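Sequence in, structure out. Go.
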Amino acid sequence: LHELANLDTLIDIVGSCIAIGKFKLDEIYASPINVGSVAPVAIELLRGLPIYTDNTGEELATPTGAAIISQIAKDFGLMHLMKIKNYGFGAGSKNLSKRANLLRLLIGQSLSNHPITQS
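Output:
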C-alpha cells in the first residue's frame, strides 16, 4: 500500500476512529460501493462486499477508504428506516470529470431492521 506512506492516510484512519467514538456510533451501515476503475489492492480489501462500477474510468474507491469501510460497516444495502439526528459531507481533493467527489454521512436512530424497498 503506497498510501501508507502518506500523512493523509493516517489522518483518514485516525479521524474515522475518533469520529466513531465521538458520535458514539453503535452500528455503521453502508450502501454498495461504486468503485469506478479500482486498484487491485482495493479490490482485495473489498473482497466479499457488495461493489459495482458505473465505468467512469476514474478511481472512486481508494485503498484507504476500502480498508476503513470494510472494517467498520456492519452491513451493506439499501438505507434503513431512520430518524436523522445529524449529517455531514466530506469532499475529496481529486477533481472527477463526471461527478462531485463527495462522501455523505447520516447519523440517526434506527426505526426498523428492514431496508426501505421501492415498489
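Check: The chain has a mean pLDDT of 88. Residues 91 and 100 are 8 Å apart (CA to CA).
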